[in-house]
Write a structure and sequence with these properties.
Elements (H helix, E strand, L loop, with lengths): L1 H21 L4 E3 L8 E3 L9 H8 L3 H19 L6 E2 L1 H17 L8 H6 L5 E8 L4 H10 L1 H7 L6 E8 L5 E8 L1
Parallel strand pairs: 3-5
Antiparallel strand pairs: 1-2, 4-6, 5-6
Length: 182
């Protein structure tokens, strides 16, 4: 279900961006925003409707966090000459169920990976877990890459797909699970 929500949210954002660009307006992507919102350039003749901007601004923050994390992972993999990962529904379900468990326990831990092997019909699995009180996926990704075991999972060429679960608790702390499969 979470995987479908990410796909629908992403498709909605792409369609709205296409509509905005097709209208001939000078809209650009604001790179400072992790959710990549659309902003109007000065001197635009056409402005987007309020509903279009509201739909873009309501992009689910967990989905945006997860998509940003996937983008960072794939950029690093491609920079190292390794094929990018695809987001796969089966490990995504495991990752999305595990992050709130860690938040509820108030501590980082790894889940049993055997069910991922059997349920997702894969030969290899690896997992990164982390927590971050900052508001962006970039900080979490930097921490993962600074840790040799976490970086090894991200750059392991045996992995071809990933599931990413991001859960934000009531204190604003992000709990993240990355389940890599191959």
């Amino acid at each position: 279900m979470h995987f479908n929500r990410i796909c629908v949210t992403l498709m909605l954002a792409v369609v709205l961006l296409a509509i905005l660009f097709a209208a001939g307006s000078g809209y650009t992507r604001d790179e400072s925003d992790a959710a990549s919102r659309v902003v109007a350039s000065p001197g635009d003749r056409t402005t987007p409707s309020i509903s279009a901007m509201q739909q873009l601004s309501t992009l689910d923050s967990a989905a945006a966090y997860e998509l940003r994390m996937l983008s960072l992972i794939n950029a690093r993999r491609m920079g190292a000459g390794i094929a990018p990962l695809t987001l796969r529904e089966c490990p995504d379900g495991f990752a999305n169920r595990w992050s709130p468990v860690m938040a509820g326990n108030g501590s980082l831990s790894h889940q049993n990976l055997e069910p991922i092997l059997s349920s997702c019909s894969v030969r290899t699995v690896g997992e990164n877990v982390g927590m971050n009180s900052r508001q962006d996926a970039d900080t979490m990704f930097t921490a993962f890459m600074a840790s040799p075991p976490h970086a090894a999972n991200i750059l392991d060429c045996r992995f071809t797909a990933v599931g990413i679960g991001a859960y934000r608790d009531t204190n604003g702390t992000w709990w993240v699970t990355q389940d890599f499969v191959g």
